[in-house]
Specification:
Elements (H helix, E strand, L loop, with lengths): L3 E7 L3 H12 L6 E7 L6 H12 L4 E7 L6 H11 L4 E4 L5 E2 L3 H12 L3 E9 L8 E3 L4 E2 L1 H6 L9 E3 H4 L11 H13 L2 E12 L13 H11 L4 H18 L4 E3 L5
Parallel strand pairs: 1-2, 1-4, 2-3, 6-10
Antiparallel strand pairs: 4-9, 5-10, 6-7, 6-9, 7-11, 8-10
Helix pairs in contact: 1-2, 8-9
Amino acid sequence: MSLVSIITPTFNSLTTLEESLDSLLAQTHRPLEVIVVDDGSTDASYAFAKAYAAKNTSLELTFVILKNASNSGAGTTRNKGIEAATGTYIAFLDADDLWKPHKLEVQLYAMKKHKASCCYGAYEIFKSSPEQPDFIHKAFEKLTFQKLLKANYLGNLTGIYNAKKLGKFYMPALRKRQDWAMWLDVIQHAGVAIGIQEPVASYRLTDDGLSSNKLNLIPFNYAVYKKHLGYSSLKSSWMLCRFFYEQFYVKGSMKLKLRPHS
């Protein structure tokens, strides 16, 4: 079976890292290459990752534990993991999020069935417990470059692509929204991303993920169009306006609120 390389950046993630790594060990697909890259943590995240790897490495489960010399940001940290990856497929899981046990198995099957090089999926959003999700973010059956251009529909924790077929893609030098920019590149080359309708992952909602902070991302969204894609100022401004329409009126409908927990 094909080797999947999983990039897990970590920064002061000691309280959540074990749970995230456990969700990788629970995957029904093997073999796996788990690449943990510590971004200059001041807690014991790096030491924990080293100890965790020493206890769990096997013939079908390889760990690579790396560390930045200093805090360098999420994009640089993920790129270090991408550079080290040796798998046919590359996927991502941050150190505070979780994968469902069937995540890779379902996605690899779908990619084979549809002869696709890229796949993503629906995911749950939780605040306190992954067993009690607050929302489900749905997925399109197929996600095109033009659709992804309108808004960031692809949750990075659900994406996977065939690096042997497409080549490796790296995060651009942007302060934020690097993952969106990278997946735009991936899908532009792949043609389409197959969407898995059932949730394949769980996203932990933190203060940084609250909707009140969305307005702070305006300059970073603009930078994806202007700096990364090279659009003119006029076109970038138009794309940004369309982004907000898509974000609030279309993407909003993709986020299904669940019933309050009893």
